[in-house]
Every structure is written in structure tokens, then in C-alpha cells.
Amino acid sequence: MEIRTFQSASEVAKEAADYIADRIRENIAKKGIFTMAISGGRTPWEMIKALAAHDLPWEKVFLFQVDERIAPDGHPDRNLTQLFKSIEDTKLPTRLNIFPMHVVAEDLDQACLEYSESIRRITETGKLDLIHLGIGTDGHTASLIPGDEVLQVVDRDVALTGNPYQGRYRMTLTYPLINQAEKILWVITGEEKAEMLNRLLHQDPAIPAGNISQEHTIILTEESAAVSIN
What we know:
Layout lengths: L1 E5 L2 H23 L2 E5 L3 H11 L8 E5 L1 E3 L9 H8 L10 E3 L8 H16 L6 E4 L24 E3 L9 E4 L1 H5 L3 E6 L5 H8 L15 E6 L8
Parallel strand pairs: 1-10, 2-3, 2-6, 3-5, 6-9, 9-10
Antiparallel strand pairs: 4-8, 7-8
Helix pairs in contact: 1-2
């Protein structure tokens, strides 16, 4: 695992955008497309804005969600709502290849299956080129929540949480799909994340993030979050 530390969250966001842009160019040159799953969060929205400033062949980029709250379309709790807000007034084309998690479906289990099938159809292998992750102060990542039955899912690439978390049930990519990604990019900012970053680096199995593969992984973080690394 590679770790790079910067002075501020804004620097982390810019570096993450540059890193993703390089991976987009590299993968498109190699195989013609780039597939990525994006998590939510304050710094990631800055990252997306910075990424939008890059001159890239967006028609060959396919964006998926790492997780989503079960909430109505356009609701401020939705990661998709915040994603669209982050790319307002950017130079991105109006028709991006974005694949939203269908969390307003009547049959959410079927929606999970269909989302998995969409990933497999676009990637052909089911293996995403890059998955972007963050970490919570409780050690969760994606919507892999401490103590939730979703942590035990090994036979599905996309699943629902068994209990509400912060007031919402969620749809999430699971360990099997995340751990086979070609690249995993962690974006971790804020001093409140220091303990969990240290536990992540030590692959602490007691936190969900500690069970993510560290092969082909890079962490971009700021100094305040890295103070507890030992």
C-alpha cells in the first residue's frame, strides 16, 4: 500500500483528481474505456470538481456508485444528489455515463442484482478499474457498517444493509467486488479520522475498512489525519 500525505484537504482532493485523471488516460489507452465507482463525502465532492477540470474523453468513462442511501430521487441525503451538485457549472458534458443505484425501486433486492449486472456488462469481467473509498470515524467504508449483516455477504457484488445507519438503509458494493478492483483509492481527511486511518493501515479486522484488500491500493490523506500512524 502506498500512502501520500498533504497539508490540507483541498490538496488531497486535487491530488486525488490528478491520480484519477492519470488512471483514466492509462486505461483508455490500454483498453478503450475506464470504469470507476465513487463514494460520497465533503472532500470527494471537491475531488470531482477538480477532476471535471481535466480534459478527458468522458464518453469513454463509466461512473458507478459505491453506495447510496435509500431515499427519494433528489433528496439531499442521496450521494447522487450531491454528485450532481458538485459537477454543476463545470465543463463536464451534460450526458455523462453515470449509473445510479436504483434505490427507489419497489424490489430493492432485484435492484441490487440489476446493478451488479450493469457493472458486469460494462466491464465484461465484473472488475472495476478503480474504486474510490473513504472511512468513517467508526471504521465503516462504503456502506459496510460495523455489526451489520452486509459484512457477511460473499455471494453478491451489491447488497442492502440489514439495519438503518444514520437513519437510512443503504445499498452498497460488497467486499467481493471491492477487493477485486484493479486499483483502490482511499481519500481520508480530518483529524477525527486519525485513529481509523492507523487501524486501516494495520488491517485491523475489527473495523470494516480493515478487511479491504491492500493490494494495488493508494491512500491520499492530510497531515491532521496521519498524526497517529505508527
